[in-house]
Structure formats: structure tokens, C-alpha cells
Amino acid sequence: MFISVIAPAYNEEKLLPIFLKEVVTYLEKMNFNYELIIVENGSQDKTLEIARNFSKKNKRIKVEHLSNPTYGGAMIRGIEKAKGDYIVFFNIDFWDKRFIDLIKVDLLGYDIVVGSKNLPGSLDRRPFSRRLVTRVFNFFLRIFFGYKGTDTHGVKVLRRKKLIPIVGKCRTTAGIFDSEMLIRAQRFGMKILELPVEVIEKRPNRFGFKRILETPKDVFNLFWVLRCK
User: Partners of 9 in the beta sheet?
Assistant: First the structure.
């Protein structure tokens, strides 16, 4: 089996080397055939340089570059370039080896497995403002879109062939891309499983309460793009 690990990267010069070393070490320890795709988007530090230096030393590490910061655009680029039977989504500041291990058991028969910060058994150690945004946003997803899950952002593993038709319908390129993708996947009838995760803040909060003020806008944008199923 062939695995594609995708990780968007924006101004991650401090955390990227650690992430690359840890993930590559685990993938090779488990003897997986893999590619690790770093999609740098609009960084103003040495993120792109660091990623390319690692790629020169390990050809399984692929680097994509986008000129502007765009989380959703980075995710889409990674998916377009991925060749694996399974795709694993990690953030540079958080990854969980369990979502790689799930591939060995064919995702327990599910199409998508999502790491949830809101499930019983999870531990969310991020600042209060970020935890509040997560809960408020997911409340809106349940009320306005009927989403049955408890979280849409964070680590995921899924089957690439099942994902491609869904991504082809997605229209958002901002931070709400994950939400649109999972709502469409649910509507498409894909089997989704959530697992609790432990999340620890590894860098200063980039958004603060400003993110709370943007939540209604994100919900409206989702409503607009999802009105055409």
C-alpha cells in the first residue's frame, strides 16, 4: 500500500524540522511505502527553504509552493499531487501516529477517520479562545448544516479514491475547507469515524478572539457554497 501524508505549512520554520524528522522516522520504522507532501503557502520565514533542504536529502519528501497564505488551497494542492491509496492530513504543530496505524487495519472499514478535540477522552490544552472558537463553530455546523460530527479541523486519514469526487465539488480555499469537505462527505454517504485526540499549543495563538468574530462569516460562506449540493 502507498501512503500520502499531506501537511500545509505557513511560517513554520521552528516546528517544521521536528515534524519532518518525527514523521519520517515513524513511517520508515513501520516500513510503509510513502510520500510526505509539504505545501508551503505564503510563508515569510524560512519554511520553504527548510522544506526544500529536507527534500534534497529524502526524495520521498515532496514540496509544493503557493505564493499566498491559503490553508484550503494548500490542502487542495496536496490532494491533487497525492498518489497514495490512503491520504493522511497532519498539521505541522500536531500529528498522531494512530492515524498512520489505522491504515494497517483498512481504517476499520470506514472511509474517513477524524481526530476530534471535542469527544469524551480528548484533551484540548489550547488557549481558551481557540477552544471556544472550535465549540462555537461546530455548534453552527450542527444547527445549520446537520453535521453529525464533533470536529472538522485537525488530523484525518481517508481513502483517496473516495475523496477525489468530494474535493472536486469543494469551493472554499480558506480555513473552512475542512468543514466543507466533511459536510459534503457526509452528504455523499461516506462512513466517518471520530477518535479523541490530545492537543497541546506549541506556538503563540495567531488569531485570538478575532477568529470568533470571523465565525459568522465562515458559516455564511459555507451556506453559500453548499446551497448547490
Answer: 40
Is 90 exceeded by the pLDDT of residue 178? yes
Which CATH number among 3.90.550.10, 1.20.1250.20, 3.90.230.10, 1.20.1330.10 corresponds to the domain 2-226? 3.90.550.10
Tell me phi and psi for residue 40, to 5 degrees.
Answer: -75, 135
Amino acid symbol at 178: D
User: Residues 6 or more apart from 74 whose CB is under 8 A from it?
Assistant: 8, 9, 10, 39, 40, 41, 64, 66
Tell me the pTM. Answer: 0.92
Cα gap 44→65, rounded to integer Å: 12
* Cell numbers representing residue 155 in the block: 488530523
Question: What are the two backbone dihedrals, phi and then psi, of residue 121, each rounded to the nearest 5 degrees?
Answer: 95, -15
Q: In the block, which residue shows the cell 471535542?
A: 118
Q: What residue segments make up the domains of the chain, in order of their start?
A: 2-226
Matching residue, cell 453548499: 226
Q: How confident is the model at residue 208 (pLDDT cuts 50, 70, 90)?
A: low
Cell matching residue 146: 446537520
Q: For residue 228, is pLDDT > 60?
A: no
Angle (deg, nearest 10), helices 47-57 and 16-29: 30
